Amino acid sequence: MNRVIQFRITKGEKFYVAECLELPVVTQGRTLDEVKANLEEAIALHLEDEDLGDFELGPHPSMLASFELEPVIHAKA
Questions:
Q1: N or C: which end of the chain has fewer CB within 10 A?
Q2: Residue 75, pLDDT score
Q3: pTM of the full predicted structure?
Q4: Taking a C-beta distance cutoff of 8 angstroms, is the pair 67, 9 a contact?
Q5: Beta pairing class for 2-11 and 57-67
Q6: CA distance 28 to 48
Q7: What's the pLDDT tens digit per position in 21-68?
Q8: How far apart are CA 12 and CA 37, in angstroms?
Q9: How far is CA 48 from CA 3, 51, 57, in A?
Q10: Distance CA 65, CA 5 (A)
Q11: 3-state secondary structure the chain
């Protein structure tokens, strides 16, 4: 049983977009705090009244998010 639900967060033009890697859950938010809150709500709603074993999840799974950063290129003077 997996005890971690993984997400990938990317920055769009106006919103941060979070996509779950194990479940069909996608959400967005204007800030990272907002996208975190939306993720928690989306996962809770998706798993509501479900048997976590059907998703190969253990009880009380954690959420792990990876955030893609754009590289910073420093010009040499």
A1: C
A2: 73
A3: 0.79
A4: yes
A5: parallel
A6: 20
A7: 989 999 999 999 999 999 999 999 999 999 988 888 888 889 999 988
A8: 18
A9: 17, 9, 13
A10: 8
A11: CEEEEEEEEEECCCCEEEEECCCCCEEEECCHHHHHHHHHHHHHHHHCCCCHHHHCEEEEEEEEEEECCCCCCCCCC
Q: Measuring CA to CA, which residue among 3, 13, 11, 12 is closest to residue 64?
A: 3
Q: How many CB atoms lie within 10 A of CB 60?
A: 7
The residue among 25, 16, 12 whose CA lies nearest residue 57 is: 25
How large a percentage of the chain has pLDDT more than 90?
65
CA gap 42, 56 in Å, rounded? 18
Kindly report the backbone phi and psi dihedral angles of residue 43, in degrees, each rounded to the nearest multiple of 5, phi listed first.
Answer: -65, -45
The answer to whether residue 77 scores a pLDDT higher than 70 is: no
